[in-house]
Amino acid sequence: MSLIHCRDSGQPNSSSDLPLDSLSTEVAADTAAGQVKRKRAQTPLEKYSLKYLSVTDLSTQSWCEQQMVYGRELPQLQAPEKVRLLNTGKSIHLARELEVHDIVEVRTTSKEDSWALKILNLLSMIPVLQAGGCVRELPVFGVIDGIFLVGIIDELCYTAKGELELRELKTRGRPSMPSEAQKKRDYFQVCLYKYIFDAMIQGQLKPDVITRHIRLRPEQPLGSQIRQHAQKVGFVVTCFGDLLELMYLNLTLSDLPSIDRLTIEYSHQDSDTPLGTEVVEFEEEKVRERVQCYLAYWKGQREVQGVEIEEAWKCRSCSYSEICDWRRTRADGPEQRSGSKKSK
Ligand code: SF4
User: Fold this and answer.
1) Which residue's CA is minimally distant from atom 2 of ligand 1?
2) Which atom of ligand 1 is nearest to 66's Cα?
3) Which domains does the chain carry?
4) Following DSSP, what letter does each residue of 109-170 receive, concatenated?
5) Which stretches of sequence are listed as region Disordered (predicted)?
């Protein structure tokens, strides 16, 4: 079956494109001297104007939280080689996607239109999975600990035993398997995809979840190109809320199974040589704990942290090692660090 996967040609598409519209940083405080206004510290979510986070934000954070923050604030300092690797990886993913999808550009005229496209992509893949087919670049959405998360699953297929398998492709600059630390980051990423996907098909993505978290209007009429595209893939919709209802019903009534198996394929970018495949064990409790720990930073419940001393080797290949406050204070002694764990 040939799928159409739509791309947004009109609206920005990142989690930081939508400023939080009701974030007051001022809190009124009564004092003996009268009414004085003082500033409350912004949470990182507020500081970067984010309404949601991506799975890749959290997997990057799992490598080094401080590095993830520098990457957001100072992307120009990233080593050119790293940028080249990322861009080549994106091109390879696109080529694989084109093997199973036709990609069309659809003009959007509102924030709701942009989200409608993501939902239409998801909706168009459900029947393919129901029929036992394979899909690529499947969007997933969900809420953990009060934070909205989005992600894109590389590939979902059925194995010969009929298990639903998530396959993640990781391309590498070096012709060798990654280190254990790199694998750990990748394991976390695919576990998080499963966590969100399973919650979606279990009915946790209710129609109002997206509108509440992203602050979208269900009554917003969809643009003409979106409505035309929806019709092509079999849905008659007029407003954004129609699509949200359809998404909820299709996910919960589709009888799709939970993801049974998680695999990561590593391949060498330049030669396209497969390097190996890892099968990942899913431990729900551990995944939830790690996510909660990472989200605590985003919610302003703790300070940013760099790597612990046992992982200081990561700093040697870090683009930000020259300017890193965490690294400098660690060199001065662990007691100098603010917000760090106590050294054992
Ligand atoms: Fe993290 Fe080390 Fe890089 Fe600092 S120098 S951002 S602690 S990896």
Assistant:
1) 315
2) 6
3) 47-302 (3.90.320)
4) -SHHHHHHHHHHHHHHHHHHHHTT--EEEEEEEEEETTEEEEEEEEEEEE-TTS-EEEEEEE
5) 1-21
ipTM above 0.90, yes or no: yes
**Spatial distance between the Cα atoms of 97 and 5, rounded to a whole number of angstroms:** 9
Q: How far is the CA of 321 from the centre of ligand 1 (A)?
A: 6
Name which residue sits closest to atom 4 of ligand 1, judged by CA: 324
Ligand 1: centre distance to CA 173 (Å) = 21
CA dihedral (232, 233, 234, 235) positive or negative: negative
Both tokens of 85, joined, read 């690797």
Residue 338 three-state SS: coil
Return the pLDDT at 104. 81
Q: Which atom of ligand 1 is nearest to the CA of 325?
A: 4
pLDDT 10s digits, 223-232: 999 999 999 8
CA–CA gap between residue 38 and residue 254 (Å, rounded):
52
User: What would the pLDDT profile of 268-279 be if each residue is shown by its tens digit?
Assistant: 988 888 999 999
Ligand 1: residues whose CB is within 6 Å?
A: 64, 66-67, 70, 306-307, 314-315, 318, 320-321, 324, 326-327
Query: Ligand 1 center to residue 326 CA distance, Å?
Result: 7
